[in-house]
Description:
The chain is of the alpha/beta class. The chain contains 11 helices and 10 strands.
Amino acid sequence: MRWLAIALVSFSASAQQYPAKPVRIVVGYPPGGSGDFTTRVIADEMQKSLGVQVIAENKPGAGGNLASTEVARAAPDGYTVLNAWHHSINLALYKNPGYTHKDFIPITKIATGPTIVVVNPSLPVNNLKELISYARQNPTKLFVASAGFGSTPNLSATLFSAAAGVQLTQVQFKGGGPAIQSVLAGDTQVAFSTAPTVMGMIRAGRLRPLAVSMRKGSPAVPGIPGTEEAGVPNYESTFWFGLYAPAGTPRAIVMRLHEAAVKGLARQEVRDKIALQGMDATPNASPDAFDAEIRAEGPMLERLIRESGAKVE
C-alpha cells in the first residue's frame, strides 16, 4: 500500500506542476482543411495561457483513426491532446478503429460550422436546383471530392444525396485540402467542404459556392444562401471540432486545458479569425457539458452511418 500512496502523491504533484514541457495537439487530417485550421488557432491561444509551447501536429490517415489511436494510447498526463469530431462516426464506420469512447475525456468544443457546396466554375450550374438537375441528367459524369469516409464532407454529401434524391459518385481523399485540389484541377467537379478549406478560393473566384448546409444560412458565411433559399429545405449538415485528453488524465489537468482553450476562444480577435473562415467559436462551459453534448448526439450520427450503408474495412 505504501508504494500506491507514494505513486498517488507523485501523480498529484505532477498535476500541480503541469505544464512543465510542450503540449502536442494531434489532428487526423493534413494541412489545408478545417481540422488543421482549428488545431493551429487553438494551439496558438492555449500556449499563451499555459506558458509552454503548444504544437499542432498533423497525423492523417484512416479517416482520423491514426491520430485518435495515438492519443488514446498516450500517457494520460496532459501533454498529448486530440482535436477531432465525434468518435461515434468512425466507431460505426470501422470494424476496429483502435479505440472506443472510453479512451477519451472530452475537454471542450472549439468551433462549429456548416459545409459549403462548391463547384468548379466550369460546371454549368449556379444553384442547388441546377446541381440536382445536372446530377439527374448526368448520373455518371458528376464526381464529388470527399475527405475520407466518415469525414464532414463525406457525411454532408451523403445527406444531400438522400435529401435531393440523386446519386453522387464520391471520390475519397486523405483530407479536405487534397479533395479541393482535385476540384480545382477539374478531376472532380463538386465538394461539400468545410468553410476554412474553401473560403479563400471562393473569394478569389476559383470556386463557385452554391449554398451553405444550413436552412437559414450562416452569419459567418455571408452572401451564400442557406438550403431553404436554395430550394432544398430538408437538407442541413453541420460539423464541429473539439479537444479530447486520454482517459485517466487527472481532472485538474483537464480543467487546466479547458480553461486555456476557453480563455483563448473568448477573445474577440480569435472569434473574428474563426468567423472569417466561416465558423463560429463554440466553447463549452465545462468538460462535463461537452461530454453531455457528445452523448446526446451519438445515436443520431450512428443512425446516419447505418442508414447510409457506408462501411470501411
